[in-house]
Specification:
Blueprint lengths: L1 E7 L1 E2 L2 E7 L9 E2 L2 E3 L6 H13 L3 E14 L2 E12 L9 E7 L1 H4 L6 H13 L4
Parallel strand pairs: 1-7
Antiparallel strand pairs: 1-5, 2-3, 3-4, 3-8, 6-7
């Protein structure tokens, strides 16, 4: 099974999401940034590489807080969601049109890929509204 990763950044009770550029299978969808692991990479290494490629930023990968499975273009993936800290908040958008900080409630109304919706459901259990 192929591996996909998602970086979950929490700040002031909001999570960082990025809006994918049009033209891909999840184009114009909001996502927790991350991506597919290459053959020789661990999920943590893949997440670090993806943030560097997509945003030109260094990150510190924390603990894994969720996992699940999904299908994209007839391929099966296992997704791992990790807590992430940005070393710098100066993001250069390369594969996204914008970023934003959203509460879990606000995410309900966003167009998101199915794999990211799974992560939102897990986050609702881990970070219940006050």
């Amino acid at each position: 099974m192929l591996i996909s990763t998602a970086g979950i950044i929490l700040k002031d009770n909001k999570f960082l999401l990025a809006l994918r550029n049009p033209g891909t299978s999840i184009g114009e969808s909001w996502e927790f940034p991350g991506g597919k692991a290459e053959e020789s990479e661990t999920p943590r290494e893949a997440l670090t590489r993806e943030y560097k490629e997509e945003f030109n930023v260094e990150i510190k990968v924390g603990k894994r807080i969720c996992s699940g499975t999904f299908t994209n273009r007839d391929r099966e993936f296992e997704i791992f969601g990790y807590l992430v800290n940005l070393v710098s908040e100066e993001l250069t958008l390369r594969e996204h049109s914008r970023t934003g900080w959203f509460s879990l409630k606000e995410m309900t109304d966003l167009q998101m890929a199915g794999s990211d919706k799974q992560i939102v459901e897990t986050l609702k259990c881990l970070y219940p509204p006050e």
